[in-house]
Amino acid sequence: MNLPLHALDTAQFERAQQLLGDEWLAQDAELAPLLPVVLARGVGQDWHKSGTFRHHLVGVARALTLWQQPREVRLLGLLHSVYGNAFVDLVKFDASSERGDLRALVGEQAEHLIYLFCTISRTEFTQKLQAHATAADGTMEVAQGAQRLTLTPREVAAFAIVTMADAMEQWSSWQDDVYSRFPYVNPARQQSVHWASSLWPGPMRPTSRIVSQINGWGRALQHPVLRQQLPLPPMFAQCTAELTAGHEATAMSLYWSVIQMDQPLVEPDCAIAVLEQAVRLNPWVGEPQMVLAQLYLAAGRPQEAERAAASAVHCYSCWGNAWDKRVQWDAWMAWARIVRQSAQQGTWPDRLDKLNNMALRQEVAGA
């Protein structure tokens, strides 16, 4: 098979398992006290990309929790847009009059990060991060309104990690189009001309662009000063491996051709070959591996199915958010675990209607 599949990291999976379902946030001693506050500000009713603003904030906080970030960074993730910013016009706290209120809720350190994240030029920060334009001492100069501000290395690292989680939680093909070439967006594109691209939520393809950009932001954390500041996110081999933009785009197109059934439909060999190539080009997202595992099972190849499904579970355990947003992260995780268990136990049904009855009947080793 010669595929770059991942061994399942049991410790990483166990961290992810604790975050499955909605109840994890209510049980989180550091984040739970803030949930009633943000809900009272209407975040459960605000639209945001692939769901509501609440879904987005919780998804970002979940990823940061999975990445073992400290309290102030996780609070930044949960509240990263509450003062509004250039990317999101959703002001939940008035920065001119309510900073003290938020500071009393989250503490001075977390509120400082939240305020900076909302008021600096996120465009300039993201562009500089993408260009690895951090100073030798780990600082970065950015605009804050009409002023220039120098971010400390810890602030740069925190904002980079939150930016990675923020992008992965929300990005799909709709944002690929309306925010094309982010962070170098062309403001001249008119909706009346590009009306087809504007129709939300669009075809719900996975992004063709943002994962390689997240990869670049993560590799920026290999700066000798920045990598000492905070735990590195686990994807891309702790942000050391490179994913090129061309490989990402090609892998997504190959994956989507199978999902859209633009392959021969009687035998799975062509679809398997296409998905194997997608995994070779981008081994860092779980959905192509999970679909490949199911096809291996259908083709009577359980050992290969088990490896691919375990690798998919590993990828889901690293990200904490779905790449293919047609269904949510915990649903992808649940189905991949069923596929893996079936491959291990030889229980994949022959009858099509029996797929409707699938369930994780007992825990398998490591998953």
Can you tell me about this structure?
It is a single chain. The chain is mostly helical and 367 residues long. The protein has a domain at 244-281 and 285-345: Alpha Horseshoe (Serine Threonine Protein Phosphatase 5, Tetratricopeptide repeat). Helix content is 51%, strand content 4%. The protein contains 18 helices and four strands. It has helices spanning 10-17, 23-26, 35-40, 53-66, 71-78, 99-106, 108-119, 122-130, 153-170, 173-178, 195-198, 210-220, 235-239, 245-259, 269-281, 287-298, 302-319, 329-345; strands at 47-48, 51-52, 140-144, 147-151. The protein has a two-stranded antiparallel ribbon with strand order 1-2. The chain starts with 9 loop residues before the first helix and ends in a 22-residue tail after the last helix. Residues 39-122 form the DUF6817 domain. This is DUF6817 domain-containing protein.
